[in-house]
Input
Amino acid sequence: MTNGPDFAPALEAAVTRAIKGVTSISGLRRLSGGASQETWSFDGNGPAGAMPLILRRAPGGKRVERSSVAPTIETEAKAIRFAAKAGVPVPPVPYVLEERDQLGPGYLMGRVEGETIARKILRDPEFAEARPKLARQCGNILARIHAIDSAQIPELKPTDARTEIEQYRALYDSYDYPHPVFEIAFKWLEERLPEEPRLTLVHGDFRNGNLMIGPDGVRAVLDWEIVHVGDPAADLGWLCVNSWRFGESQNVVGGFGAVDELLAGYAEGGGKDMTAARVRFWEIFGTLKWGIMCMTMYQAFAKATDRTVERAAIGRRSSETEIDLVNLLFP
Amino acid sequence: MMDQPSALELVTAVKEFIEKHAMPQLSGHTAFHARVAANALGIVARELEFGPQANAEEQARLEALLGMKGSLDELNRELCRRIRAGGLGVATPGLGGHLRSTTMDKVGIDQPTYSGFKAAQSRP
Output
């Protein structure tokens, strides 16, 4: 590795020490996406050929404060390893960075080939055979994720519907700008809180964009950066939020399938007590949550921490979630 | 009274400049941000064109619903306060219709190609 970012030599030293058969690295480049952690792509080279790898590490190698349920990056790596054991398609995690690597907190994982861009997955002929299978497959995978014994990862932070609603209510209140549709949604949710569901490991961001898809179906579940313990129905509901259907609204599950198929796959995978009503509650919460996240991103512009036109304009996407909430709450 | 061109014409001219002349010469992240910028000017243009009427209609509906006069900001804050206090809710006659009309006008200005907007339009 002759040129690249300043940490390239340290990475090469760590990789050649940690992965047998790798003697050098090449092609190190930053990937877009993954807002709170850095993601880098590179190849590990050796006598056996090139090994496609990913580095996930804290921004600039420094640990940062994140949302209240977000785990440390080491816990994220641990959760992915447990998911692999539970039969969830995930990239292998061959190594978690150590102090002596001088790279900050992070881990290495295999680079899985496939597509994450929703518009391609939902429209390109290449995925025509995969699409009808995806909702069932997602249900099956989610059941496996929820079956992981979360007691084995005690570092994971617990939350529930009441806590999440309170947190997003506090965020919304702090922006001091009236959104009557969000008020109605908060009220609707507060009056229908789930009755103490069994809490499980929850992926937290299971949706189009974080699913690596091939012509054969789901190849890997990515982006475990807010894995936590919570109501398992949250993962199913988030996958149904209209914003993640990318224009294919008629297919409630991710723009590719129906809730019945998702639930059938969930039951096949060993998932218990899941109902369309539980999924609907979390779909409505997820829609509200995305609307408030749009407000949050606009705040970064308003408070001058991120003066890009993208951050400014996203505030005007709150109304997308409002029309979805109106459609959901006033059918 | 301002001279011609109108604000709407000016914004439209800048939007067309970005789309037709600037964007073809840009690449990567800058091209992406140029597209976002052109879309943002689209929002401004639609708001200049349709915003005043949408606001006037929203104000009239809110005054009837709440039985009081005030600015749009005051009326919306009052509506939020009453929803939160439980005085107005999903079952309140007229509230659903008001929120639907208001949100349709908002998203029609913000993102008229959004799927949820089309779904709402196709409702009776």
Notes: The mean pLDDT of chain B is 95. The CA atoms of residues 8 and 49 of chain B lie 7 Å apart. Chain B touches chain A at residues 32-33, 36-37, 39-40, 43, 73, 76-77, 79-80, 83-84, 86, 89-90, 95-96, 99-100, 102-104, 106-107, 110-111, 114-120, 123 (CB under 8 Å).
